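Example record

One chain of 181 residues, shown exactly as stored in the release files.
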Amino acid sequence: MSKLSTIPNILTMSRVFLLPFFVFGFFLEKRLGIALSTIIFIFCCITDYLDGYYARAYKQTTKIGQILDPLADKILISISILFISGFGLIDTISIVPASIILCREIIISGVRESSDNFSTSKLSKWKTAIQMIAITSILISSFAESRNFKIWGEVMLWGASVMAIISGLAYCKKYALQSKD
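Predicted structure tokens for this chain:
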């Protein structure tokens, strides 16, 4: 079996494959399109959990999976944040935490690329889960026209941005201690 064709890697690749369909939903009739994008986003979130579960449970952890999984997460979160911001699904002030999250993702991608061993911390996993809940709530608020879901999603987005700062600083500190440069 090819390392790329393990169940966890197939699930990870499915997230990347579905992203154009997620984006496409934003250009359809608003309620229908956002509902489609929400369903795709939720499916991607579920596959994120399942790929980690299967990798551990069936000992299918691969080097390519350790690279692809966080990359797929970063792409999913980044595109989602760009689209909920660009299509006005969040209040203008909530672009601040969205920007913090995007900046953290870019910085950590660079840190991970220049290091051999950077496993995902528990705090980062919680941050990703909260980001996914926040984005899901914001998406649901748009097609369900629920102010409560929007408020909840934006509060969670602010919380995720705080976690992004903390976990980002921890990664940078860890990198600085490992690096001799």
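Notes: The mean pLDDT is 91.
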